[in-house]
Amino acid sequence: MGGGARTVAGQRLVATVRPATAADLAAIADIERVSFSDPWSLKSFGNSLAHDFVRMCVVEDDTGVAGYSVVWVSGEECELANLAVDPARRRSGLGALLLDALLERAHEEALFVVFLEVRASNAAARALYASRGFHEVGRRPMYYKNPAEDALILRRDLK
Prior knowledge:
By secondary structure, the protein is of the alpha+beta class. The protein has four helices and eight strands. The two termini are 20 Å apart.
């Protein structure tokens, strides 16, 4: 899994995507806490890292771990279970870099489809996913808590 350089507002930002390790868990949990109103626990991330059906990656920039993704693989399908970028580093292309890396890996693993849920009100995430070919295939009413909100189910076929 690799990453690359991104140019952001006239600056050159170098970032790399790599598999997460136990040493990354505290940074991942910190980003999770400031990103979501109902965050996963540090223990949940640690448990996820231990399973062979989970693909957990981080994106690093010159200041360290800037974001992460968690993908669950089942047969020839996968689900993007979680993706977040540190709020101070959003809108710099890091989320797109993570998403592109996980799509590349899914393709390499010969997976057929990627699913995900996203808050209906999360316009920035929805725009990112749409830019990578995801489309809405369903809705989960009141899926999210704190605040209660529907989740949109998005899908991208890989073959």
